[in-house]
Specification:
- There is one protein chain.
- This protein has 89 residues and is mostly beta strands.
- It has a domain of 37 residues.
- Helix content is 0%, strand content 31%.
- Strands 1-2-3-4-5 form a 5-stranded antiparallel β-sheet, with no helix packed on it.
- A hairpin with a 2-residue loop joins strand 1 and strand 2.
- It is elongated and about 50 Å long.
Amino acid sequence: MLQANNYIDINAKSNFTTKTAAQHTEMADSKFSEIETTYEVNAKNEIIHQVGSTKVTINGASVVIEVGGIKAIFDSMGLRVIGGDIKAL
């Protein structure tokens, strides 16, 4: 266990890797990342980004955006909106 009452600094001059055979969980009041070149996320099944009730779900076949009871689905069938209208401005 790595534990501190205030803060922990970990510095590496080259690569830094953490690895687990099971679930990797991070819990914090807030988190900041500053990436100077490329930020890459690869998932075998799906990626879910959620802020409050707004959610973006990405998998190998579709992107689903849910906002305020409206669901927009981008997939092989095109764009579908459930619970709302598509409007051109």
